[in-house]
Write a structure and sequence with these properties.
mainly alpha, 27 helices, 65% helix
Amino acid sequence: MENALNLFDEMPERDVVTWTAMITRCAQNGKSHEALTIFREMQQAGVKPNQFTFASVLNACSSIEVLEQGKQVHTYQIKFGWEFDVFAGSALVDMYAKCGIIEEARNVFENMQDRNEVSWNTMIVGYVQHGYGEAALKLFCQMLEARVKPNQITLTSVLRAYASLAALEQGKHFHAYIGRTSFQSDVCVGNALVDMYAKCGCIKDAHKAFDQMPRRDEVSWNTMIAGYAHHGHGKSAIHLFEKMKQEGVKPNYITFVGVLSACSRVGLVDEGYHYFDSMIQDYGITPRMEHYSCMVNLLGRSGHLGKAEDFVKSMPVEPGPVVWRSLLGACRIHGNIELGEYAAKRALELEPQNDATHVLLSNLYAAAGRWNDVADVRKLMNDKGLKKEPGLSWIEVKSRVHSFAVGDMLHPQLEEIHAKLNDLTLQMKNLGYIPDTNFVLRDVEQEQKEHSLGHHSEKLAIAFGLISTPFGMPLRVIKNLRVCGDCHTAIKFISRIEGREIVVRDMNRFHHFESGLCSCGDFW
């Protein structure tokens, strides 16, 4: 690369092809800043850029996410008439999408008269990366209607969209569609299938897809290990990791995030220490914040708060906010206010605007009945302009995803849903269920607390699923926050009463409820 730059500098005459070639080479070799510098020199030299110049410059902007410079390039694009060119326009869509300006990306996309598979894929990928799964799927349907042939990038992106929505039935139909294409044996598509099934709550189907792959890379193994970890199958994750090593596939830092996460979700403390040390000593991998966070999570949630604190203090690098939040979360579970306050203080010093830290601290105080402290944290959040993320849950019924908010009053079948919940509550109480009002994080009367618990979003979603699906059919629900202890207990009772398997994916892991038990063993 350096030789090419020296040769370029020595050239007496340089035309648009030469400048563009140099910009492209820099952008493709991780030298995005150099690519932007050369583009500025090209402008100063008075050389008129073409569509390929703009595509390469925008790719450089995308890779380092420099929105303001990307906007300046966009202005030049308009000036020279290349804004909606299929190459330069696609790169512009990608730049806005990667910088998080998804509306502007869609605006450019819509105004492009000529689009190829790159244009469509770029917009679909942008939607998926920013959590707009439904929009991605709608655009994919439009792509097919436009008779643009999808490739492996399209297929993997659509699978990721189904995974984000936990739209299992639609994902299965799409799996069948993939089987009729030339990409059914593609490694990337296979990896996305494993990921889709795992994130939709079907870990057995994920492993089946993994076993059927004719060829696997390290991403395949990492995806399956992470899937087992997310479902709380710690031993299975470790077994697969050992098999990965036996087959000569070298683990990387992502592999160890999956393994350590698997240990933390089921409390395998000794195994966690072993694999953390092995990562450093056997594979020469320098631990990242994710690895430290997994270890703190493992020790803290297992009740070893002192060891977790010592581990944080012994870190050779400054602990990041994710590490302090892991410690704070463990303190919330075990009611250690003093250490929790310290962890919150350190996390907020690093990320003063992080709403999750404020909410964890507020919950710690609420669980201890320290309502004045709760009020102080909420006032602090208001002063900072922060809002607690509302509890939301999703369930797929008849290939349509339905969403519910805590205390939802908008669903057209609300009356039937509440009637079902009231009936379930009576049956649960007859079996010994007592609403755990410690999980109502507001200072209100007992009756109000019980009413509040009964309207959590996951309970609404489950009740809707029960009245909308055939008897005995498994239910799969996504929750954007951690499922509360009362809902966890209630869903165990519901699975017993209804004779159903109920799978709930919260922000941390999967819970498989069946016959009154949960796969997590009440450790989460």
